[in-house]
């Protein structure tokens, strides 16, 4: 049986025992051909409200290290949102293109993305088209901006001063009732699926979950409009890893450091003093760095 085809033969079982089944639907925006009907209105605008542009962005790359690896696909979806009500109003247009990295795509990347050397051969991003797509300084939203932004900024250096927000790190999904943060999981909880690990489709899936959960989108907009302080802890912290987790720090495997974002300098200083006074002794030696961030500087490398 093809797992991608709905099993119509099971209708009798479903009717007899509906409590044993759940229906999951393809995200409407990812149905083949829907993008030919853009723009699509999702919410009615209100006269006099402030309307801004947001671009949902995702990348596919040849690996995890932005300094050594390259972009092979860039997907972007432009939408409008109400800055007053903090809801998405419309899906307007998209950009989706491959770029030949001029080197073989690793086997493990092909297995995840299904992007092959033949698919990218001869393709390249149109720098002017990308710049025009991002004209007007929209808010860029990625589900892991800490990964996507360094790759994007390296490839499009003239666009490295845009405002970014991260739906993975700037939304507390657990407080919204979710037990995970992956994009596929979030959509599946609401009864939707899509073909993941392709940049354009992932961008649509991100837009969809934030349209379906306007409280999550509101959190993201508020975060993008606010300053924050990033607390970085680096050094010999192995023996206090569990304590740092309890304090809601996350481990950055790329930089080999623990980090957390807080909303004010005073809160950051209090947390820094608590950690240093409580744990910094003997072999437990580390540095604590505080960095003030805005949407223009978050997730830059």
From TrEMBL:
Record's InterPro entries? Ribonucl_H, RNaseH-like_sf, RNaseH_sf
Record's keyword terms, sorted = Exonuclease, Hydrolase, Nuclease
Record-linked Pfam families: RNase_T (PF00929)
Domain called Exonuclease: residue spans: 53-218
- Domain of life assignment: Bacteria
Cross-referenced PANTHER family, in alphabetical order?
DNA POLYMERASE III SUBUNIT EPSILON (PTHR30231), EXODEOXYRIBONUCLEASE 10 (PTHR30231:SF37)
Show the NCBIfam families listed in the entry: PRK09182.1
From the Swiss-Prot or TrEMBL record, give the protein name.
DNA polymerase III subunit epsilon
Could you read off the lineage of the organism from its UniProt record? Bacteria, Pseudomonadati, Pseudomonadota, Gammaproteobacteria, Aeromonadales
